Design the sequence.
């Protein structure tokens, strides 16, 4: 499986929702502590090559593709800004927007897949902001968390509902039509780094935490988790529900592995890939190509492989 | 830390509550709430039914907490909020603590309503006032004790800075003062010993001279001489006195200076120790996401401060520790070992150096008013959109895709080559295609229209003639794995419904049998069991 080497440490990887062979990688210099950032846009045919890349003054922590425009990408930058890039324009015209409202690092972005008109940004300034591409300022700010918000995820079926995962050990579920959060899940005893919704059951949400576990919750009965997935050796950095298989979850962790789980099964761990040699920090599952996985980590490598195959196989 | 003792208070109130109440009700952290669980299923069913009938516009959304307020939890929260330690903390951390214990918003609001309110302004000024009191006390004490006036302003000024660490420095100040007093006393004693005998001897001399003079009253010059000698002696004595007093003054100023130097050096050491302890904490990875504010202020470089990717574990206990989560007795998860170069960079930044590989980049938009381009491609439907809500949208997409599909296909075909299968689409890939009309109800990721397969970049090649019929038969048998996924064509998949819990899996058509055999076709020496094993692997699909 081809590999792509980035000059900086990888932070996030996402497949394009429009083109099967396109994906983007967010990277930061010096492990994201202090330094520049770069956003790479790669294509997979015939091997992984770079289409274009964009440099930023500060590290890029996350990215998301637009669901409405095939050439737009949004980057969450460590200086708190969100930058929108248009691949149909030459690099000298990019970025087309820089939205700077967060007081601290922007750590996560997510694009609405239902109405496809808006996106969220999660920041270390304890807030989540709602934006649309055409507006220069945020539409709404959701300020309730008591600590950094690491991730925000839209519900795949309800256009107004999203969840946010925070370092205050809670996951909050919000409805953009309501003034405040509608549910508070005290999901873990330690910081929660990532959350994602089940694409096939809109009430199921998975949370990944510093306590090395992934918990799957049903919001209708949120006091007790549906499943607790143990197996990672260190903090779980990112969790993602499969777009093709209802109960499958992909996760990446500081134990340098990417794991696949089926939470409905007794022995939930169904795959483990230990191809990275440093923290595995980003993982994604392709929506257009079933079984295609991508991951990136602090070892400055991006792997794309089919589930069931060895990512490092030539 | 403030909150840990308050947590103790929380646990004791819980224990008391459980002892007093007959049924052991929900303990925080072990959520078993029989009361709420009884009410929930009935509410669930109602909500589920509603959620299914009215989708987005449902007022009773599933994502709302519909539990009634639990009085017990509210009472525990009230006890927690009334705890004296808790009262000093900002409101948001109290809320966060209660949220982590599993209280709902309504319960928390009710508890806050019941506890007599303390305004946030009062809570924040309180700790400031107490610290200032401590600082003012120190210099006043010193002033009482210091006998020497000149040293007052200096130690008072320096002691007020370090008023907190009074024990160490007070005794030190006392020692210095005592030493000075002793030296003063010593010089006084020295005075007595040296000056007074001189005076006495001088007086005796004078008296003797007087007596001698009376015998020879003619000796005036001798008297004058003696007077001169006496004056000289007096002058010498006075000079001595002046000298010693001057020396004393010098020594005093020197002491003062040394004292000040000592104080400043201790301050520097203290700051360094603080930095080191912070660095150690970080190296052990106990901070998440941010570092204390005072460190950010210390660095005068223009960059806005450090970021620390969180490792595992809880936040260190510094002046901002109240802000963070304070896990209870549970074991802290082990810290992931960070890469060595990561540690080096962290250490470099702690020292105030900037890594040399950072460039100045201007990433501002060159034209912020650039109009956002119109979308060129219609959004592709998601595999989980089963078409109920998206039916109208799909009709629009059908017409668009028909025009876009061709251009898209040509673009990809140019890159692919017509017959070359992209490496990432081989073997286990299920390219969803709809061949039969009756499957149209379930949308697939690529195609929406019925009976017209959209040309995608990868066209499945025709399955080659089967080399081994038994192998083909083995391939076509349904597998027993839990992650069931059919290897079969449409007709056969419909016929065999093994434990498929996901309908979509049944529908996703497969050219995989073609693909799989194509891969295995080269190695025709494989027997059926090996082929089965291969198929097993390919069953672990997403």
Sequence:
């Amino acid at each position: 499986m081809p590999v792509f080497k980035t000059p900086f440490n990888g932070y996030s990887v996402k497949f394009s929702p429009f083109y099967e062979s396109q994906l983007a990688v967010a990277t930061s210099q010096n492990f994201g502590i202090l330094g520049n950032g770069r956003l790479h846009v790669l294509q997979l045919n015939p091997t992984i090559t770079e289409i274009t890349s964009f440099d930023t003054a500060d590290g890029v922590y996350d990215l998301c593709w637009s669901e409405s425009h095939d050439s737009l990408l949004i980057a969450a930058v460590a200086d708190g800004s969100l930058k929108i890039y248009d691949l149909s324009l030459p690099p000298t015209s990019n970025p087309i927007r820089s939205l700077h409202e967060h007081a601290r690092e922007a750590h996560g972005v997510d694009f609405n897949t239902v109405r496809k008109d808006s996106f969220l940004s999660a920041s270390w300034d304890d807030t989540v902001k709602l934006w649309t591409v055409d507006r220069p300022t945020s539409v709404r700010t959701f300020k309730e968390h008591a600590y950094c918000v690491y991730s925000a995820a839209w519900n795949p079926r309800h256009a107004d509902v999203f969840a946010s995962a925070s370092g205050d050990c809670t996951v909050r579920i919000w409805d953009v039509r309501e003034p405040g959060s509608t549910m508070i899940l005290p999901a873990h005893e330690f910081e929660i780094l990532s959350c994602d919704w089940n694409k096939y059951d809109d009430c199921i949400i998975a949370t990944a935490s510093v306590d090395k576990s992934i918990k799957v919750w049903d919001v209708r009965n949120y006091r007790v988790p549906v499943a607790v997935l143990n197996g990672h050796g260190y903090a779980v950095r990112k969790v993602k529900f499969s777009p093709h298989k209802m109960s499958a979850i992909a996760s990446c962790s500081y134990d340098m592995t990417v794991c696949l789980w089926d939470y409905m099964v007794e022995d939930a761990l169904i795959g483990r890939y230990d191809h990275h040699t440093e923290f595995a920090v980003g993982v994604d599952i392709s929506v257009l190509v079933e079984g295609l996985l991508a991951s990136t980590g602090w070892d400055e490598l991006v792997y794309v492989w089919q589930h069931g195959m060895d990512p490092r196989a030539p | 830390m403030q909150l840990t003792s308050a947590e103790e208070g929380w646990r004791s109130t819980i224990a008391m509550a459980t002892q007093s109440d007959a049924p052991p009700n929900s303990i925080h952290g072990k959520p078993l709430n029989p009361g709420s669980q009884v009410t929930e299923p009935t509410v669930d069913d109602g909500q589920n039914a509603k959620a299914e009938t009215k989708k987005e516009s449902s007022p009773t959304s599933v994502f709302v907490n519909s539990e009634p307020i639990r009085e017990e939890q509210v009472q525990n929260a009230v006890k927690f909020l009334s705890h004296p330690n808790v009262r000093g903390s900002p409101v948001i951390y109290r809320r966060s603590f209660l949220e982590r214990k599993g209280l709902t918003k309504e319960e928390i609001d009710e508890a806050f309503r019941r506890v007599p309110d303390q305004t946030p302004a009062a809570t924040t000024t309180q700790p400031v006032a107490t610290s200032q009191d401590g600082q003012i006390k120190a210099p006043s004490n010193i002033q009482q004790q210091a006998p020497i006036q000149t040293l007052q302003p200096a130690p008072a000024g320096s002691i007020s800075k370090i008023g907190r660490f009074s024990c160490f420095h007070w005794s030190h100040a006392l020692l210095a003062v005592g030493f000075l007093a002793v030296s003063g006393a010593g010089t006084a004693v020295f005075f007595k010993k040296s000056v007074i005998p001189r005076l006495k001897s001088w007086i005796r001399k004078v008296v003797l001279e007087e007596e001698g003079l009376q015998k020879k009253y003619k000796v005036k010059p001798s008297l004058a001489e003696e007077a001169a000698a006496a004056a000289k002696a007096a002058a010498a004595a006075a000079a001595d006195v002046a000298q010693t007093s001057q020396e004393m003054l010098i020594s005093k100023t020197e002491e003062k200076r040394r004292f000040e130097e000592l104080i400043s050096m201790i301050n520097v050491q203290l700051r360094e120790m603080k930095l080191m302890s912070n660095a150690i904490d970080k190296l052990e990875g106990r901070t998440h996401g941010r570092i204390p504010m005072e460190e950010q202020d210390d660095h005068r470089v223009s960059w806005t401060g450090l970021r620390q990717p969180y490792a595992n574990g809880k936040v260190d206990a510094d002046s901002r520790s109240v802000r963070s989560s304070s896990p209870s007795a549970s074991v802290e998860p082990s810290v992931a070992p960070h890469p060595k170069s990561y540690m080096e960079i962290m250490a470099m930044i702690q020292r105030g150096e900037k890594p040399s590989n950072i460039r100045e980049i201007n990433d501002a938009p060159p034209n912020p008013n650039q109009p956002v381009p119109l979308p060129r491609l219609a959004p592709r439907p998601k595999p989980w959109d089963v078409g109920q809500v998206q039916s109208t949208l799909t009709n629009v997409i059908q017409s668009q895709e028909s025009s876009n599909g061709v251009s898209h296909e040509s673009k990809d075909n140019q890159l692919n080559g017509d017959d070359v299968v992209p490496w990432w689409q081989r073997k286990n890939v299920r390219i969803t295609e709809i061949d039969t009309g009756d499957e149209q109800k379930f949308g697939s990721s690529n195609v929406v229209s019925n009976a017209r397969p959209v040309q995608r970049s990868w066209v499945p090649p025709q399955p080659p003639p089967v080399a081994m019929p038994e192998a083909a038969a083995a391939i076509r048998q349904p597998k027993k794995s839990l992650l069931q996924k059919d290897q079969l064509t449409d007709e056969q998949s419909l016929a065999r419904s093994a434990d498929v819990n996901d309908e979509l899996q049944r529908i996703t058509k497969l050219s995989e049998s073609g693909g799989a055999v194509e891969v295995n076709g080269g190695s025709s020496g494989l027997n059926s069991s090996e082929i089965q094993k291969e198929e097993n692997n390919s069953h672990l699909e997403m």
